[in-house]
Design brief:
The protein has eight helices and eleven strands. The chain is an alpha/beta fold. The radius of gyration is 16 Å and the shape is globular.
Length: 212
Amino acid sequence: MPARFAPGVQAQIDGAIRALRRGGIVAYPTDTVYGLGASMNIPRSVRRVFEVKSRPANMALPLLVADMSQIEALAREVRPVARTLIDSFMPGALTLVMPASRAVPEIVTAGGSTVALRIPDHPVPIALIRGTGVPLVGTSANASGLPSPLTAAGVRSQLGDRVDIVIDDGSSCPGTESTVVDVSGDIPVVLRQGAISMEGLRRVCGTILSGS
């Protein structure tokens, strides 16, 4: 069942969906930190995300998806260990790096062969993905080198009016970024320590390496 929002928040979400469809970029709360997003399939929008963040063009962008069917469409292969981690920690603060399918635009992968995917445990990004029907760029809404903002005010102080819409639901994000695990090889490798601990990951999938 779709989430129900207060009227003011729903109006912001509706406006953000319209902006994303037109090629805009939006900032939105998540279950980790504020995200900065664009529709995956509009290259000029994705390019704006790089520009607004001053992010190097050779750094791939993660994607937020709404459900397992979108993961299966974007990943060339979903290995058994990836499915185990998805079943255990998604929706939630886990990002999985998997072999990218041809459905993922090259600008998102920065020319690489993998894509980072996450199902957020927050109704706002899910509503944006459902509303546009397109996976959402899910990078943090900060200028490169600065802390990831946890509030709408924090986004505005860093990015100003370079973002078309900043959704403000009146809350603050938890503040711990997602744990990133590469499951493109035979053994999972933690690329970034985050909200989900190594111990928690090992309890679910056994052998896992730390690459961070």
